[in-house]
Structure formats: structure tokens, C-alpha cells
Design a protein that fits this description.
The radius of gyration is 30 Å and the shape is globular. It contains 20 helices and 15 strands. Helix content is 50%, strand content 13%.
């Protein structure tokens, strides 16, 4: 019998479209043995979910190799890397947020969708469906319900039932105890025990190891995206037993002592004097990323300790290792994320005016030389934003192929059979001109937030409200359009993840297979309508449409030096394009 153990070697996973932003690393080798249960322990954002999604093929693997038994997770076919179908069928993942995987109209349809890739006969489907419901503790009466209408705990149980119906060799569970009551946790433990007794394995990310630790064989700690070596669950439990049993005050004292090295020398006090402690805290805080240089009130004593854990320090020991050398001050990171900084850099009115000038000049072009100049201008604008605009590259490539296709169709002549190159070139030139104007507009989504667009429209055209022009309704509509576009893209990404996690699609990450496209259209439209309904309810709750409520403004937009330079550059670029259009 083939050994179906996981093997992960020298793994590196980066954020989508950002190779310089590492989310997960495994420096050497990590093995999850067949027939065992492994718990993933770590703080929020440590990388536990990323590890599970990478094993399930929901995230792109930038470096390293993952294999289940003798099969690699990703198989190279030509220039594409496709997910191994055998690995996908042997793996079932329950995402951290259960509601992110629902798209069908009823609970029964959700269960049947999970079973579809296994090509079972109707009697087998019904048997597995009923057994999965019973094991998860869900009554059969829920089969006709909308999954979104279930409670949080019921949705968590339904996610488990969708996995159990497939009978995979491996379960990848992300926070399975969240939202469950005592009975639900007891059922989950029983399910995992039966799964393990059948010779199958599970990897479980959890913040509540106490409930699942008796079933676990190993524990893996994930810290800041780095996956540590697996340790036996019994050893991990023994190491933390005293800490877990101690009162909260004693546990806090133990952690403080772990970070405190008392002054060296015989007869030294366990804790330093207040002045020395304050100086040490100041020195340690100044070394943290993002810490500002804060003045320390005098008088102050030289630091007698560093508030950093010493190698091999015992949390319960009164004495610890000698003080560590003072760490070097680190360079401060930017106060805002890059995307947020870009979105608040320019006044939307300046951006819109600049775009209208350049787009109008681009559309005027009627020669390939003018189009080349317009493309160079658009490329110069794209260059500093290339990292943020990388998710659009697939769309751009598809549009470029459409231009070539339309050019070929326009130039084809049937009677007589020939090809009109001039007609083809004119068609491609016109489409490419529109394409260039569109490329220039894509960064607008990045450089403006919906709220700033709304404020720009209100400040520019607000005076028209005196003449009964519904400016508020118009600005709200424009704002909702800009908010809705990212939601549409995000919802499509959710459907692509469902296709891989539950539909067992083997296409590259983020893409929806053509075979699933037809069956996804109607659920996708239904999901969009649900989002629209939720948005309408949110607007109503906030008082939009109530004329008796007077709106307030948290900030006002003002033109700055960068806005003037932007408009000056746009005028110069438009003048160049206008001159090019004359020839």
C-alpha cells in the first residue's frame, strides 16, 4: 500500500503578485505522517491558514516542493503548472470562514457539489450525504435551507459534513472549533478520532489546542510565517502543563521573568530599580520596528537588563542569562501601507482632469507613430505602479489577444478569398488606441478611494443642489460603482477558490476552469445580488436617503503641490500627443 504522507521541502510562498512579500517559509523539511493528527499553533496572522491553503493548492508555490506520497502537488505540463488530480481528490480543506465557500441555493446542493468530482452513483451519493449529516450533527430538515441562513455553528458543521461526504485521506481544517458549542466540539473530536482510526490523517490549525490535544500526535508552531519543526504532542503538552494549570497572575509573572534578565552579581535583586527598569523598557521599545525615538525623562540609570527573551531562558526561573547587548536601532517602516499612501497622495479632481486630457489626446491618434508615443506615455505612468497593477496583467493579455483576433477577422475577405492588410491594420489601430486609453485609466482605481471620489464630486458640484439637482444621489451612485467593481473581482476570486477547494479543479491558482464556467454563472449572479442587498441594508442603517439627517464631512480635499505638478505634466503630455495627431 502506498504511503500517503505529506512532504514539504524548502517552501516559500509569497503574496499574490508580490514576490518580495513572503507569507510562509519552511527552511528544511516537514513531514505529516499518514494516520496522524497534527495541530498547527500560532498567533493570528502567523501563517497557519496560508500553510493549509498551500497544501490544498489554493496558493501559488513560489519555491520548494510539496508531495503527497509519490505524487507532487503541482505537475508541470508545458508552460503551465497544474494541480495533481490524485492529490486534490485525497485532500479536503475547510476554510477558516465557512461562509466563504457557499454559493449554492440549498444545503443539499452544497453537499452534492462536493461529491461531484468523485463521480459516484446516485445511491452512493445519498448514502454519503446522510452519513455526513449525521456525523456532523445536522438534521436532515436543513437540506432545503439556504446555507447563508444557517447559524455560525451550523455553517461550521456543514463545512465539516461537505468534507466527510467525500471521505478524503487527509483533512485540512482551519479553526474548526470556532463557533462550536460543547456538543459541536465533542462531535468534532469523535469525527477526528474515527478518521484517525481508519488510517487517515489531519492537519488542524487552532487557537484552542486544549480541546484537540488528546487526539494529536504532533504539534507544529508557526511564528511570523516561519514553520518550526514538528514536536510530539505529549512533549508539547508536558512543557506547557505547568503554565496552563497556573493562575493567570502566575502565568503573566512567568512570561515577564522570561523577558527579564536581572542585574548580574551575587545577591542581586530579582527586579532592578524603577529607573533601571524604565531605561531598559525604553531601550527595548526603541529597537522595535516602527518605534519612534522617544525622549526618556531624567534622571535615568544605565540599562541593567534588556526586555528580550534570552536563549534557553526558563520562564519560571528567578535568575536568567546575563543582559544582552543593546540592539541596533532599526529603520522605521512607512507610516501607511503603499496602497493606502498612493490612494491619498493626489486630489481626485486633479487625477480626473489629467486623465481626461490625456485620454482625449490618445483617442485623437490616427497613426502608429502617435499610438507608439501614447503607449510610451502610458508605460511611463505604469512603471512606478507595476507592483500594484500586476493583478491586471492577465486581463491585459486577454485584451491584446482580442485585438489580434478582431484584426484577423476584419482583414479576411471571402469573395475572392484574400486578406486586406490595410483594413486589418485600421481595425487594430482603433482598438489599440482605446486599449491604450483604458490602460491609462486602470491606475485610477489604485490612486483614488471611493470616499475621496465622493468628496471630490460633492465639493465640485455641491452648489448645484441649490437648483434641486440631486447631487447627493449622483455622488452616492458613482461611489457605489467604484466600490462594487472590487467586490465583483473579489467574488469571482472566491468562486475560483471554491472550484479548487471543493470542485477539485486542477487549473492554475485563481482561474476558473471552462468546464465549470457555465455552472458558475447563475450562482455568481445570485451572489452579486446578495452583496447588493447587503449593501442596500447597510446604507439604510446609516441613514442614506433620509432627508432629515444632516450629513457631516470628516475632511475636505485641497489642491497641493503634487496636484499642480500632475496637471502640468498632463498638459505637457497632451500637447505632445496633439502635435503627433496633426501629422
Amino acid at each position: 500500500m502506498t504511503d500517503l504522507s505529506w512532504r514539504l521541502e524548502e517552501i516559500r510562498v509569497c503574496a499574490a503578485g508580490e514576490r518580495d512579500k513572503t507569507l510562509l517559509t519552511i527552511k528544511e523539511k516537514l513531514v505529516f505522517k499518514e494516520g496522524t493528527i497534527t495541530l498547527l499553533i500560532g498567533s493570528n496572522g502567523a501563517g497557519k491558514s496560508t500553510l493549509l491553503e498551500t497544501m490544498a493548492g489554493l496558493r501559488k508555490l513560489n519555491e520548494g516542493e510539496i508531495a503527497l506520497g509519490a505524487d507532487n502537488l503541482w505537475v508541470k505540463k508545458g508552460r503551465r503548472r497544474l494541480l495533481s488530480r490524485s492529490v486534490a481528490l485525497n485532500t479536503g480543506i475547510a476554510l477558516q470562514h465557512s461562509e466563504s465557500q457557499w454559493f449554492a441555493a440549498t444545503v443539499k446542493e452544497e453537499l452534492l457539489y462536493s461529491l461531484k468530482p468523485y463521480k459516484l452513483e446516485p445511491p452512493d451519493k445519498e448514502r454519503r450525504l446522510q452519513e455526513a449529516l449525521q456525523a456532523a450533527g445536522l438534521p436532515a430538515e436543513l437540506l432545503a435551507r439556504d446555507p447563508w441562513s444557517l447559524s455560525g455553528g451550523q455553517q461550521r458543521r456543514l463545512a465539516l459534513a461537505c468534507l466527510l461526504a467525500c471521505e478524503p485521506q487527509w483533512l485540512l481544517l482551519d479553526e474548526p472549533t470556532a463557533g462550536l458549542d460543547a456538543e459541536g466540539i465533542s462531535r468534532l473530536c469523535a469525527v477526528l478520532a474515527a478518521h484517525k482510526a481508519a488510517g487517515r490523517g489531519a492537519v488542524v490549525a487552532t487557537h484552542d489546542p486544549g480541546a484537540l490535544l488528546p487526539l494529536a500526535d504532533e504539534v507544529v508552531v508557526v511564528v511570523d510565517g516561519s514553520v518550526r519543526e514538528a514536536v510530539a504532542a505529549s512533549a508539547w503538552a508536558n512543557a506547557h502543563a505547568a503554565d496552563a494549570a497556573a493562575p493567570q497572575a502566575l502565568r503573566a509573572l512567568a512570561k515577564l521573568r522570561c523577558f527579564a534578565a536581572p542585574p548580574p552579581g551575587a545577591g542581586a535583586a530579582v527586579w532592578p530599580a524603577p529607573q533601571a527598569l524604565a531605561a531598559a523598557i525604553h531601550a527595548a521599545a526603541a529597537a522595535l520596528p516602527g518605534a519612534a525615538a522617544l525622549p526618556l525623562a531624567a534622571p535615568q540609570a544605565p540599562p541593567a537588563m534588556e526586555l528580550r527573551p534570552s536563549p534557553g531562558a526558563d520562564p519560571t526561573a528567578a535568575n536568567a542569562s546575563p543582559p544582552l547587548p543593546k540592539p541596533k536601532r532599526r529603520q522605521l517602516p512607512p507610516a501607511q501601507p503603499e496602497a493606502q499612501r498612493l490612494a491619498t497622495r493626489f486630489d481626485p479632481r486633479a487625477l480626473i482632469a489629467a486623465y481626461m486630457l490625456l485620454a482625449a489626446s490618445i483617442i485623437m491618434q490616427h497613426s502608429w507613430s502617435g499610438l507608439l508615443l501614447a503607449g510610451a506615455l502610458a508605460g511611463a505612468i505604469w512603471l512606478p505602479l507595476r507592483a500594484q497593477m500586476r493583478p491586471w496583467l492577465g486581463f491585459i493579455r486577454a485584451y491584446a489577444l482580442i485585438i489580434l483576433l478582431f484584426g484577423a477577422v476584419a482583414g479576411a475577405q471571402i469573395q475572392p478569398l484574400s486578406f486586406d492588410w490595410e483594413q486589418s491594420a485600421r481595425t487594430m489601430l482603433r482598438l489599440a488606441t482605446l486599449f491604450c486609453a483604458m490602460l491609462l485609466g486602470l491606475p485610477m482605481l489604485l490612486l483614488m478611494t471611493p470616499l475621496r471620489i465622493q468628496r471630490a464630486l460633492e465639493q465640485t458640484f455641491g452648489w448645484l443642489s441649490r437648483f434641486k439637482v440631486p447631487i447627493s444621489a449622483i455622488t452616492l451612485t458613482v461611489t457605489l460603482i467604484f466600490r462594487f467593481i472590487p467586490l465583483l473581482l473579489k467574488e469571482w476570486e472566491r468562486f475560483a477558490k471554491i472550484a479548487h477547494a471543493r470542485g477539485k479543479a486542477i487549473t492554475p491558482v485563481g482561474s476558473l476552469p471552462l468546464s465549470m464556467l457555465a455552472s458558475a454563472i447563475i450562482p455568481y449572479i445570485r451572489a452579486i445580488l446578495r452583496i447588493a442587498e447587503q449593501m442596500a441594508e447597510a446604507l439604510e442603517a446609516r441613514g442614506f436617503g433620509n432627508s432629515e439627517i444632516r450629513s457631516t464631512q470628516g475632511f475636505r480635499l485641497r489642491f497641493g503641490r503634487q496636484d499642480v505638478l500632475l496637471l502640468a505634466g498632463a498638459v505637457f503630455g497632451a500637447a505632445l500627443l496633439y502635435v503627433a495627431a496633426l501629422f
